[in-house]
Structure formats: structure tokens, C-alpha cells
Amino acid sequence: MKLIQILNQNRRDFKGKYKCEFCSNIDIDKGMDSYDDNYYYQEVIPNQVCTKCKKSTFSEGKLHEKTKTKYPEGLQL
What we know:
Elements: E1 2-10, E2 13-19, E3 26-28, E4 34-35, H1 38-47
Antiparallel strand pairs: 1-2, 2-3, 2-4
């Protein structure tokens, strides 16, 4: 999955819109389930499984794009 839009953000928690690189399915967080830090962008998002085709970036061996966080790493809000 790939983050394509942040719909709502409160501090580091956000609601995001994700697109599958394989079938172009769009998934949206049900609540404020996403977190704005490097670990989330580098490990969690690429491991998210698409609800339609059941594939993830890492399961298919695809490289993920580096995404920049809104706040610097280590900043406490």
C-alpha cells in the first residue's frame, strides 16, 4: 500500500487514504489509526495488505517510497 493523502491529523495520529500498487484499490483508515513517524512509514504501511487483492508491498518484494514525516523524528508533541 502507498499513502496518497492525509485526511485528518491530530498531533502524530492521522487518518489516511491508501492506494494499492497492484490493483489500484483505495482503502481509508476507519479511525485515526495511522501514526506520523519513520517506523510507521517504513515498516507498517508497506506491510499493509490490500483488502481487495490481498497483496502488500513487502509480500510482493517491491521497494517502497520514502515518505517524509510532518514533524521531525524525536519531537514530542
